[in-house]
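A.,

Following up on our hallway conversation. Structure tokens first:
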């Protein structure tokens, strides 16, 4: 259960703001009343929209914003709301929609507007006064949260939770928001029936990270329309069902024990451009997909061209292959040894990270083989075997400027050389 309301005392709020979050709750029930209710647990409001409207204005002062979290607590029931439910983000006010077996028959929109900032000025973290600004600022800035009561499962879907039948949309309303701190959304024991999207993104340098736990995203998309520049949309998910299509413009930072539907970087919605969209992990040396299952038909990871690093563990990779996943433009991290392959080559070829045993046939003439990027191959061994009886040489070339210590020229039939790397240079044995 959510903690009881604290007395809404501005002075008390200002004192507490420097160290702890201040929780305020507005209760909503299908048996409540907007006319006679006061938002308390004993006299709840009837509608979510009315409860949001009851949150007092913050004024144009950082001192009254403090470190507040406002929760709209929906008791069990079905809430039929007129139009979208709109949460407006006031700086340092965390807004939370909490459901205890609640079904919301409306879309939920999270808005960021220039008017929500003090005096309508652009937000610059370096100008925020103490105790809310640097150097003592330890308060998270912008946060939206959707949460349910528990993680119980019924029929493969979370139960006793918050179910939103409309889409979840994040929207930037005003041009020229300037520098905005990273935004964070949290979803816990939530079921979204129409996906999650971000659109109208115009602030320079802003990013949104969505962290999902024990939740289901069903139908539609999890992504950004690509309008604007300078930001990003990032995903973290744990023990969840990602039954929406991931993409476009969504970077998978980390997912574990999740069920994927489709991952498609080629999608486009709300006028966004496809060029430059990336699905994959921007974090090096960190597995982004761990112990996950796949049930869809489309898996387009990474940008449309070039080598894209897919950070995935072998268990998830094996399941992904079973869905018909192909290797186009994909580079695997060194721990992914599952897809190592043997193949026969007759012409000059750039070897792949997935190559294990290469049978070189120089019957038609001498040719060269270019070794893979050593930084991506350091845990593997590559073997090259000359199969033909001619004197035509098979020459091994480095990926870039690294050295090859040992035999780099195969001229005799049956000659086999193993190539190892320390991540920087190659060694033949």
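Then the amino acids I'd put at each of the 429 positions:
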């Amino acid at each position: 259960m959510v903690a009881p309301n604290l007395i809404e005392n501005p002075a008390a709020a200002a004192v507490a703001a420097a160290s702890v979050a201040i929780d305020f709750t507005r209760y909503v029930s299908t048996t409540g009343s907007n006319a006679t209710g006061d938002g308390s647990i004993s006299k709840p409001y009837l509608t979510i929209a009315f409860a949001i409207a009851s949150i007092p204005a913050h004024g144009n002062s950082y001192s009254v914003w403090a470190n507040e979290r406002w929760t709209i607590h929906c008791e069990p029931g079905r809430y039929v709301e007129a139009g979208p439910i709109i949460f407006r983000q006031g700086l340092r006010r965390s807004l939370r929609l909490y459901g205890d077996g609640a079904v919301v028959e409306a879309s939920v929109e999270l808005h960021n507007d220039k008017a929500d900032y003090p005096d309508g000025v652009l937000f610059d973290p370096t100008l925020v006064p103490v105790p809310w600004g640097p150097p003592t600022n330890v308060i998270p800035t912008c946060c939206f949260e959707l949460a349910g009561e528990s993680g119980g499962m019924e029929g493969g879907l979370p139960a006793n939770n918050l179910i939103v039948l409309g889409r979840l949309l994040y929207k930037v309303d005003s041009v020229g928001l300037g520098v905005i701190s990273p935004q964070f959304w949290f979803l816990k024991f939530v079921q979204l029936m129409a996906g999650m999207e971000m659109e109208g993104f115009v602030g320079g340098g802003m990013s949104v990270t969505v962290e999902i736990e024990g939740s289901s995203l069903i139908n539609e998309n999890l992504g950004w329309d690509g309008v604007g520049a300078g930001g990003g949309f990032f995903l973290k998910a744990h023990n969840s069902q990602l039954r929406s299509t991931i993409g476009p413009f969504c970077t998978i930072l980390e997912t574990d024990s999740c069920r994927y539907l489709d991952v498609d970087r080629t999608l486009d919605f709300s006028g966004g451009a496809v060029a430059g969209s990336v699905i994959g992990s921007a974090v090096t040396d960190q597995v982004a997909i761990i112990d996950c299952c796949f049930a869809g038909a489309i898996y387009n990871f990474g940008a449309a061209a070039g080598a894209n690093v897919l950070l995935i563990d072998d268990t998830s990779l094996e399941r992904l292959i079973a869905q018909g996943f192909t290797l186009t433009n994909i580079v695997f991290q060194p721990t992914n040894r599952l897809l190592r392959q043997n193949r026969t080559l007759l012409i000059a070829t750039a070897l792949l990270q997935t190559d294990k045993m290469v049978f070189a046939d120089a019957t038609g003439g001498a040719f060269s083989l270019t070794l893979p990027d050593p930084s991506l191959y350091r845990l593997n061994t590559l073997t090259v075997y000359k199969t033909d009886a001619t004197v035509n040489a098979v020459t091994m070339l480095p990926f870039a400027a690294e050295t090859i210590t040992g035999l780099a020229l195969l001229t005799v039939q049956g000659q086999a050389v193993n190539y190892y790397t320390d991540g920087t240079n190659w060694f033949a044995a």
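The radius of gyration is 27 Å. Curious whether your intuition agrees with the design.

B.
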